[in-house]
Amino acid sequence: MSQFRKGQRIEVYRKSDDESWEPYMNTYIGCHGIVTDPDTVINDPDAVIEVSLDGHGTHRLPQDCLRPVP
Questions:
Q1: CA 4 to mean position of chain CA atoms
Q2: What SS3 class is residue 27?
């Protein structure tokens, strides 16, 4: 799993396997956004990170559903 950094563009590309994934989050699949708080202090690749999704506000999402986009 890649290390995300603040300001990085991401895409929610799939449903997460993490227990924190809620059914309403399925609407975010395919959305793009920016990492606003990667929690680098925790340095836990399984931790949720804060992302600002274009048109959907700011959310804390598991990293396994995110991927970097150019």
A1: 9
A2: helix
